[in-house]
Amino acid sequence: MVSTPGRSLGAAARLLSVRLSRPVTAAFAATGTPSIAEALERLRSGPAPRIALASYLLAPGFFQDRLETSGADLVAAPLGVDADLAALVWARFDQACPAPVTLDSDRRRLVSARPVLAERNGRW
Known about the structure:
Shape: elongated
Helix content: 40-55%
Strand content: 5-15%
Oligomer: single chain
Number of strands: 4
Order of helices and strands: HHEHEHEEH
């Protein structure tokens, strides 16, 4: 099964709902429906006294700014740098691209995975 952003966000919303024992609505800061504005409008028309947005973003920037200026009562910080998150990203990368990647001359940083991905997927 191929993961899609909507499916992933929906699964995260369900897990958060169980954890908090409250309803959680998944919404999108970029494309997808409902948008943050649509979700906030719908929630404000109901019994919710306050609305909090849980950011599902990795870092601050354009989309986090959208969340912070949305009009929600509370906005969580991005997930941020976390060793477990970095390990998960690296593991997923290894699963998707098990061939060696191109490193710089000191072999300390990834220069490009494009040749490997292009070879593996037939496209970039």
